[in-house]
User: Fold these one by one.
Assistant:
Number 1:
Amino acid sequence: MERAYDVILAGGGLVGGALACALAGKGARVAVIEAVPPGGDGQPSFDDRYTALAPSSRHILEAWGLWPSLREALTPIRHIHVSEAGGWGFTHLDAAEERMGALGWLLPNRSLGEVVTRRLAETPGVTLVTPARVAAVEHGPEAVAVTADGAGGGERLNGRLLVVADGAGSRTRELAGLTARRRDYGQSALVTTLTPERHHEGWAYERFTREGSLAMLPIGDGRCAVVWSLPHARAAQYADGDEGALLGALQDAFGYRLGHLRGCGPRHVYPLQAVRAPRLVTDRVALAGNAAHALHPVAAQGLNLALRDAAALEEAVAGQLEAGGDPGSDALLRAYERQRVPDIRRTQQLTDALVRGFSLDLAPLRLLRSGALAALERSGPAKRTLMRIAAGRLGPLPRTACRPPGTAEEEEEL
Ligand SMILES: Cc1cc2nc3c(=O)[nH]c(=O)nc-3n(C[C@H](O)[C@H](O)[C@H](O)COP(=O)(O)OP(=O)(O)OC[C@H]3O[C@@H](n4cnc5c(N)ncnc54)[C@H](O)[C@@H]3O)c2cc1C
C-alpha cells in the first residue's frame, strides 16, 4: 500500500525525532523511518552520552514544547574554564558576568530520546515505520517516493519532502544522489562519567592535553561527564583496561581542581570523523544533522548546529503548509541551503581550528597558546564574540533559535 505524507524523515534520532515532533505539532503529516525501534538495543543517538546544549537549542526545544519535559534531567553550566596541560594561560567564562542564567545545559541523550519517543507516539499525524531502513529513493516532479525495508518486507511511502537525518554514515544521502566528504581525525572520543571528590558547582572544564582535548562537564549528583579525545589505540586501551589506570591518566591530565577523581561509569568509544556534504539539497530532498555535517566534539557544537538545521526546515515547511504551498519546492530548498551554509561553515572552521591549533605538542606553540588564552581572558569583546558563537547566536539564524523578543538574558534560568 502506498501512503502520502507532507514530510518523510529518514532517521528518527536526536535530530530526525525532534524535527518530526515539531512538524507534526504544526499539523504536518509526517512519516519517520527509523532503523532501531523505541527501546531497542543499540540506538546510536539516544545512548549513554551527555550533550551540552547551547542557548539556541534551548529556544528551539522550548518553541517545540519539548523543554519542560526535559527540565529535571538538565544540569546548568555556570562557568567554563579553558586551559592547556603544561601551559600557564587560561580563559574563564562566567554566566553571571555575562548576565546569563546559564551558559548552557548538560542533557543525557537518553532523556531527549525518551521525551521524543513519547511525543511521537502521542502526536496524531505521525507514522513511525520501524525497524526499517531506507532502501530506495525516487524523485518525481510532484513527490518523492521512499521504499523502507523492514521486518515485514518493503513499504513504499510518498512524500512532498524527504529530510535525510540518518547520521554521519547516511546511506539515504547516497540513495538520494547527494555526496559527502569524510576525514578521519585520527582520534576516538572516550566517554564516561566519574564522581570527583569536590562538587563541580556548575563548572565545565575544557583542558587541552598532550593526547587530545578533555572535557569534564557538570551533571547530576555532583558527577561529571567525561569526553576525552585520544588517538584510537589509546582510547581503546583506556576503555578496555583497568579503571584505576584510566582514573590515574585522567588525574594526571586534569589535575586536582575537583580533588581526587573516582568512580568511573560505563565507558564507550566513538571514532571521530569530519563529514561535510557539499550540497545540502536536491530534488525534494534536504540533509539535516550529522548526515549534512559531523564535527569533532571539542566545541560541543554538533547537535546545537543540527537543531538549527531542523529549526530552519520546520519554519520553512510550516510556513508553506499554512499558505497552502509545496513543502518540497525548489525555492524552499534553495533558501534552506542558503540560510544554513554560513552557520555550518563557521562552526566547522571554529571546530577544526581548535583541533588543529592544539594538536602540536611543541614548547614554543604551547607558549603561544598560553599567551592566546591569557589574551582572550583579558579581552571583553573577543570573549563576547566567542560566547556568541558558542551560544549559537551569530546569524543568519532561524527565528526559532533566537531569544524570544522581550525576554532578558537573566531569564534564561532553568
Ligand atoms: C562523543 C560525542 C560527544 C558529543 N557531544 C556533543 C555536545 O556536547 N553537544 C553537541 O551539540 N553535540 C555533541 N555531539 C554531536 C551529536 O551527538 C550529534 O550531532 C548528533 O548525534 C546528531 O544527531 P543525528 O540525529 O543527526 O544523527 P544520529 O545521532 O547518528 O542519529 C541517526 C539516526 O538514524 C537512524 N538510522 C541510521 N541509518 C538509518 C537508515 N538507513 N534508515 C533509517 N534510520 C537510520 C539511527 O538509528 C539513528 O536513530 C557529540 C558527539 C560525540 C560523538
Number 2:
Amino acid sequence: MSSVIDLLKSHRSIRKFSDQAIAPELFDDLIKAGQSAATSSFLQGATIVRVVDKRKRSQIAELAGGQRYVESAAEFMVFCADLKRAGNYCDEQGKAFEGDFTEHFIIATVDVALMAQSLVTAAESVGLGICYIGGIRNNPALVTELLELPRGVYPVFGLCLGYPDQDPETKPRLPISVILKQEVYNEIGDRDAIAEYDEQIREYYKTRTGGGHGISWTEQVADLLSQKSRPHMKGFLAAQGFKFR
Ligand SMILES: Cc1cc2nc3c(=O)[nH]c(=O)nc-3n(C[C@H](O)[C@H](O)[C@H](O)COP(=O)(O)O)c2cc1C
C-alpha cells in the first residue's frame, strides 16, 4: 500500500493545536505544494490570505461562530477565489471583462479547493493537523472587509494549520457502494447501506461525546438540507462582482 494512500485515509480534522510554530521554510514549501495542484484553464484563480495579526484572528474566530482554534492554530489562512488578478489583464489588453459568468465562478472556486487540499495533504504528510473553516461564510462581508478583498475576490473558507494536540479517530465515510456507481447513477441498495452506516456514525458520536446521544448521518444531513443555509451568500457574491450570468 502506498504511504500516500495510507496518509489520505488517516485524515481527521484537528481542533486542538500545540503552541509549536511551523518553520518558515516548511510553511513556504506547503504553499508551493498547494500551488502545484491542477488549475482549470491555467487560471490560477486562488489567493491565500495568511492572517498573523492576533486581533484579526480573534475577530474572525468570533465571526466564524466562536471557533477558538482559529486563534490557537500556528497558522490561519483564508482561501479566496480570485477572478480579479486575471481580470486586470482584460483592461490592460483592451478586452471587455466578461469574467462574471457562473462558469468562471466554478473554475475559481474549484481551483481554491484543489489548492487547499494539496496543501492539506502536504501538511498532514509532515505531521501537521488541519481544520477547514467554512464558518467564515457566516459573515463573509465582514471577513472581506477585514482582509480588504476587492471585487472579483471572495473568501471560500479558512484553514487552521498546526501541530496537533489531540489524536481523534478518523470519521467513517459512506460505504463505497453508495458513492461509486457503475456507468450510470442509481440508488440500488443505498438505503440499506446507509441505514447500517447511520448506526456506525451514531456509535462514532457516542464514543466521541463519552456516551451521549449519537446523531446519525441521515439526521444530520436532513437537518442541513431542511434549513436555509447562509441565505446572505447570493447577495454577498453579487456585491463582490460574481453575477452568475
Ligand atoms: C469546506 C469545509 C468547511 C468546513 N468548515 C468547518 C468549520 O467551520 N468548523 C469545523 O470545526 N469544521 C469544519 N469543517 C470540517 C468538517 O466538519 C469535517 O471535515 C467533517 O466533519 C469530516 O470530519 P474529518 O475531517 O475529521 O474527517 C469543514 C470542512 C470543509 C471541507
Number 3:
Amino acid sequence: MASERQINVGGVLIGGGAPVAVQTMTKTETANVEATLAQILRCADAGADLIRCAVPREADAEALKMLVAQSPIPIIADIHFNHTLALKSIANGAACVRLNPGNIGGPEKVAEVVAAAAAAGVPLRIGVNSGSLPKHLMELEFSDPVEALVTAAVEFVELMEKLEFSNFKISMKSTSVPNTIASNRRLAERIPYPIHLGVTEAGTRWTGSLKSAVGLGTLLADNIGDTVRISLSTFHAEEEVKVAWEILKALKLRERGPVLIACPTCGRLQFDMDSVVIEIEERLAAYPDAIEVSVLGCAVNGIGEARHADFGITGAKDAGMIFSKGEPLKKVPTERLVDELFAEIDRYYDSGKTVVRDEAAAAEAAEWLAENEDAEAMTPERLAAMEAEASEKAGGGDDVLQAAGITAKKPIDEDASPSAGRRFTRS
Ligand code: SF4
C-alpha cells in the first residue's frame, strides 16, 4: 500500500499519494561548493526532485549555506556518527536530514536532533542499512536478515513516536534485491510513514541499473515506495537520476520527456539500426514532452504495430520512411532518416503541435511502404500481436498461434492493478 502519511521536503511532497520523488546523492566533496553545485545542477537538469549531500566534516555543514542558497532543488544533509553536524545542517538550511539513529551516539543525541528538526520544521530520513544494524539484532540478522532490518526500522519508528515526532520518512537498504523487496513489503504493512527505496551498493551502471529496476520496480508496481534513489558506482550522479526516471516511466508512474520504442531487430534488418537508435535517444533528450517515437528495423510489418507513436521511422537498405500516428509522412534516403525525423518533429512544434502533411510526399511514402510490406511474414511483432489477440479471446484457439507454440496469457486488468489511481500518465 502507498504510505498514508505525507511529508514536505523543501516543497517536494513525499508519500500520501504524491508522485514518487526522484532523488540522488552528489559524489563531490560537499565543501567544494563549485563542484557540488555543478553536479546538483546536472542532477536537477536530469530530473532530480531532491539531492542529498554528504556532511562528514564541519566544512561540509558550512558549505550547505551557499549550496542551499543556489540549488534549484531541496538539499538533504547526509549525516553519520556526528549529531552536531546534523544540528548545523538544520541551522544552515538543509531541507531534510538523513540519519541512522543507531550510529549517532545514543537516544539523547537522537532526541536533540529531533528537537532541532521539529523546531525548524525540517523532516528527517531515518536510514537503516543491513551493514550497520544495532548490536542487539545481530543474532536475528544471522537467522532472518529481513526481519532484522524490519525490526530495526520499526524500533526507530517507535523511538520517533516516543519523541512525538512524525515528520519523517524511512529507508531500509540492503545489497540483496530479494531482501530489499521482502523487507519493504513487510515494513509497508507495519508503518504509515513514507518509504524511501533503494538497493544499496547496487553496482555499475549496467548491473546496478538492472538490480535497481528489479528491486524497486517490483516494489513500486506493488504500490510501495514514495521516493527512490538509484545507487550506481559512477561519479556522474545524473546517471542515477536517469535510471530512476526510466523505472518510473516504465511503470507509467511518472512522465518525463519522450518515450522511445524500438524493435529488437532481427535478420530482416538492412540498416545500421543500433547506432540510429542511440542517436535518436540522445537527440530526443532535448525535447520536454512525452512524445512517443518508434524505430522499426524494417517495414515488413507495415507500421500498424507503431500506430500509437507520435512519430516513427522504418528503414531498408537504401530508403526508409517517416510516419506519424500510423500514417506515412515521407520517404527519405536511409542515411537521412534521423535528420528528417527530427525535422518533422521540429515542424510539429513550430506548427503548434500539429503534424504537417505534404500529400505528394505521403503518397510516395505509402507506395514505398506497400512495396516493402509483407502481410504473411511471421515476424516477432506479428507473433506478439497474435498472442495478444488470443489473450483477448481468453483462451486463444488460433491454429497458427498454437502451431507456433504460443499460449494465451490472461490480459492485465488495469483497474485491479495495485498501482491503479497512482499512475501519473496521459489519458
Ligand atoms: S521484423 Fe520486426 S524485429 Fe525484425 S527488423 Fe523488422 S521490425 Fe525489427
